[in-house]
C-alpha cells in the first residue's frame, strides 16, 4: 500500500508543490507513471467513447473497431506525452511523465461535470487543450528550474535498470 500512497503523493505533489516533489523523486520512482496515467485518462475521460466503441463492436463484430476505439482514446495522452518529453528533454527524463497528471485531472473533472449536466463553454475538446497547456507549462518549468542530473550514480542506476528490462526482450 505504500507504493500506492507514494504514487498519489507524487501525482498530487507535482500539481501543488512541484519543486519539493521533484527533489524527493528517487531514481526508480515513476517508471510506470505514463501507463497508469494513460489508463486513468481513458477511464476518467474517454469511458463514454469506449462504451460506444463496444456497442459498435456488438453490432458489427469487427475486432478492428475495438482497436480503433482504443487507439483514439489513447491518442491524447500519447501526443501530450511526446510534447512534454520533448520539452523536458533527455537529460531530465526522470520527470517526463509527471506533467501528464495535469491533463488527467482537467479531462477527468470536465467529464464528471458533463455527466452531471454542466455545460462547459467552448469546443468539446477544450478540457484536453487546457490540460495540454498546463502539462506543457509544467514541462517548461521543469526544464528551466530543475538542473540536469550530474551524478554518475543516477545515470548508472538508470542504465542498469534499462539493461535489466531489456534482458527479457527477444528478437525472433
Structure summarized in a few sentences:
It is built from 8 helices and no strands. The protein is mostly helical and 172 residues long. Helix 6 (100-115) runs antiparallel to helix 7 (126-145).
What's the SSE blueprint?
Blueprint lengths: L1 H15 L1 H7 L8 H13 L1 H14 L2 H26 L11 H16 L10 H20 L6 H15 L6
Task: Please explain how this structure is put together.
With 172 residues, this protein is mainly α. The termini are far apart. The protein is globular and about 55 Å long. The protein is built from eight helices and no strands. Helix 4 runs antiparallel to helix 5. The relative contact order is 0.13.
Distance between the termini: 38 Å
The coarse overall form would be globular
Spatial extent as radius of gyration: 18 Å
* Strand portion: under 5%
Instruction: Write down the overall mean pLDDT.
Output: 88
H and E order: HHHHHHHH
Largest sheet geometry = none
Keywords: Membrane, Transmembrane, Transmembrane helix
Transmembrane segments: 63-84
